[in-house]
Amino acid sequence: MSGMFVGMPAFPKAAHEVVGNQTLRGNLRHATHTIRAKRAKAVDELSDWAELREAGRRIKDHTLRHLDRCLEQLEESVTAAGGTVHWAADADEANRIVVELVRDTGESEVVKVKSMATQEIGLNEALEAEGIRAYETDLAELIVQLGKDRPSHILVPAIHRNRGEIRDIFRSEMGRWGRPAPQGLSDSPAELAEASRLHLREKFLRAKVGISGANFMVAESGTLVVVESEGNGRMCLTLPETLISVVGIEKIVPTWRDLEVFLQTLPRSSTAERMNPYTSTWTGITDGDGPSVFHLVLLDNGRTDALADQVGRQALRCIRCSACLNVCPVYERAGGHAYGSVYPGPIGAILTPQLRGTQSEIDASLPYASSLCGACYEVCPVAIDIPEVLVHLRERVVQGGPVTRAGNKVVLKPAKGHAAERAAMRAAQWAFGHPGVLRTGQRLASRSRRFHPRTLPGPGRAWSASRDLPTVPAEPFRDWWQRGHGGEEAK
Amino acid sequence: MRVALFLTCVNDTLYPDTGRAVVRLLTRLGVEVDFPPGQTCCGQAHYNTGYRHEAEPLALRYADVFREYDAIVTPSGSCGAMVRELYPRLGARARAEGRGDTLATRLAPVIPKTYELTEFLVDVLGATDVGAYYPHRVTYHPTCHGLRSLGLGDRPRRLLEAVRGLELVELPGADECCGFGGTFAVKNPDVSAAMGVDKVRNAESTGAEVLCAADNACLMHLGGTMARLRVGMRPVHIAEILASTEQEPPR
């Protein structure tokens, strides 16, 4: 995945910084609570939401079960419509293909539609290394790119920035990339939007190559679909001569009719709109209308490995709506950067360790970045049981076991750093297997209770640094029960 | 009807008052309740931390200890959810791993007989007014596993509303997690503590004297946070409120 996240610290450490940053906490709280409330309202409008959610889950599960056939059908349809299909097993291969395709056009710059897949593979950096400049045209992506920043949200990648910061970035950075920000730019949303329009317009009109992802690919017709709010996508998809789309293989739906479900659930879940402002669809190429050359790069990059996992594969249903981020109490307090991936929040915590593996410190810490409160599962429009997958991946971290990596079945060893925890869990299991042992432990704790400290040393400080310890009672319940057999006479 | 109390390891060790309250409450409602001493822990902490195989013997112990009873009542939303939602998953995973149906078959009988306390009161006994008296201003925090896994809905609220003398006040952001999350509390202590502080501040803003919940694990986290912040509220398990009467105020 994108090189910009390499070497990230484990989640708890990264989150520690954010929790203490009151400005950032305020920005995140305000933004997530606002969108959370709006989404709830937009979803409550539909009396058949539960049915739509179930239909979405079924369509995605059915497609994933027959992914091989769907993909071959898609390749045929796209080819028949005048497009060219390329298959990329991983990020490097996808980047190589795109670089070659751009080189073949003789161009040295491209305009981009907001796309998670191209961020996942670090395409902008790969193009840059070959002397090709990629311009992000989505407003929030533009802010991130100009600020040499990292995205912190799937839908709103600059959610961690406030208006003043955006104005400062526009003022100092726009000139380096093209048309500078207008003199005296203020932090009013209208002025900021106009500045980005003027800055981007020259890029839209000049660009000969556009690069996009896609929200959906229709196997039967070979149609690709991008939904967006700003119209920048429509510009990139129609003005350039060459269009290159990099799309994860799980973005496929079998039929045009299936879109009916997702075009209802996606906008309501993501931007809380009944319908997104722009829905662009294209099928191969059409003479005199839009790009004359179309390339589709189908990206695997760990998806087939995830598909091999019976529990984890449900993460591939994701339609990238961000509803789970917006309701997540952990995301709200830790921010998106702590997840060390272009996919933050609850969905990132189950997707990243499946796409990248659980070997690095950050990736092994992601399944624990959740209190398992279940709010994410409740709002997911394709019913991904995120807590179930989190627990499944925790098991993979601490116990190892069989997984598929790069198409090969391998047996993972348990991750390092869990030896003390494992010993404690086994000791607890043994004690709980012997009620007599449990009672002896309880009595010891009760009798020594006057000597218990208020705070704990060592690892126990993780609890007592912010919370008082509970007071141990004079006797456990089971002793009271056995003395008097419960009942009122026991008093 | 033979009714067993599954108190949970946390309550047995740290919150015996909650256990005594459940016994007093059920006895008052004419239910004879037993506490089989072979019970220990449902295995939730093991399962949720990634030690599924270590949770299996604990689940089997639960199934053996409670098999003979008609109903098993537990004053914990999360332990109740472990049995009802996750025991079936333990069995299914064992089957998927080629270990046959033994685990699923042995666990199956106790799963539908397990009730969280407020479910048992409202659904099985058909009681919302349990004859309690508790003259205090109370705010209620619906804990996540009770709310979302078990779907307790408005049962706890209906029970509290029927308590004489009790003034129930709305908790802002009630359905947001308190930040306990089992081992999450120590694996991600900063985020957990921040969530706890926000929950406590919301509770404080209601002017209530008592923060009530149906799960002592969450209340242990929130009570510890309140004590550290020197907030003048106290955490009380719903069983202790429902058990209290004019003749027998809470101890």
Automatic annotation (TrEMBL), chain A:
Species classification: Bacteria, Bacillati, Actinomycetota, Actinomycetes, Kitasatosporales
Domain LUD residue range list: 71-284
Keyword entries, A-Z: 4Fe-4S, Electron transport, Iron, Iron-sulfur, Metal-binding, Repeat, Transport
Keyword Transferase in record: no
One matching Pfam family: LUD_dom
Region (Disordered): 443-491
Segments of skewed composition (Basic and acidic residues): 476-491
PROSITE patterns registered for this protein in UniProt: 4FE4S_FER_1
Annotated protein name in UniProt: Lactate utilization protein
Domain Lactate utilization protein B C-terminal: start-end pairs: 393-483
4Fe-4S ferredoxin-type domain boundaries: 315-384
Domain of life (superkingdom): Bacteria
Record bears the keyword Ribonucleoprotein: no
Automatic annotation (TrEMBL), chain B:
InterPro entries noted in UniProt: Cys_rich_dom
Pfam families: CCG
Every Cysteine-rich domain range: 3-83, 138-222
Annotated protein name in UniProt: (Fe-S)-binding protein
Organism: Streptomyces macrolidinus
